[in-house]
Amino acid sequence: MLLPWAADPFTAPTDRDMLPSERREFVRTHRTCVFGYRRRSDGPAMSIVYYIPTDDDELLVSTMAGRGKARVIGRDNKVGLCVLDERWPFSYLQVYAQAALDRDRALAVDVMMAVAGRMSGRPLGEDARPSVAAMCERENRVVIRCKPYATYATPPRHLHRNDQVKKLTHWVSGTVAWDAPDPP
């Protein structure tokens, strides 16, 4: 089941690393990411996309079957999604996932309906479904199912005034398994 859009996305703490449960909540309540995958000869390919989380923690990305994102999944199912916070100071969460291509047209229509709702901030009415279905058919839309297995987070650090530079701190984070429990 596709999760509804969260009007109030999770805000990353600025004084500590996110707990594993907070990392999952961050991903579930945001809507855009940089989708990245390895290319054969060059650096990684990256594009900004809307994603749709599901109740079983998959992240669904719609694309056209002829695009690189869809074509690469057959040879390399490891992808990265850098989930973006759209509020200042910017934070992000890197999600490492195994990807699979799903050619189910009904799912592609459902995902595109959900994407349109996230783009506009309001769910699309069912009266739009035939138009979205026609677009999915015309563009040969498929869905990339991304199953997260780990995350990497860096808390946002920002100067609000120049005299704060003496107090600005940074720390390192680490990769955490997607299903890791919170520490006691």
UniProtKB/TrEMBL annotation:
InterPro entries: Pyridox_Oxase_N, Split_barrel_FMN-bd. It holds the Pfam family PNPOx_N. Residues 20-133 form the Pyridoxamine 5'-phosphate oxidase N-terminal domain. This is Pyridoxamine 5'-phosphate oxidase N-terminal domain-containing protein. It comes from Mycobacterium attenuatum.
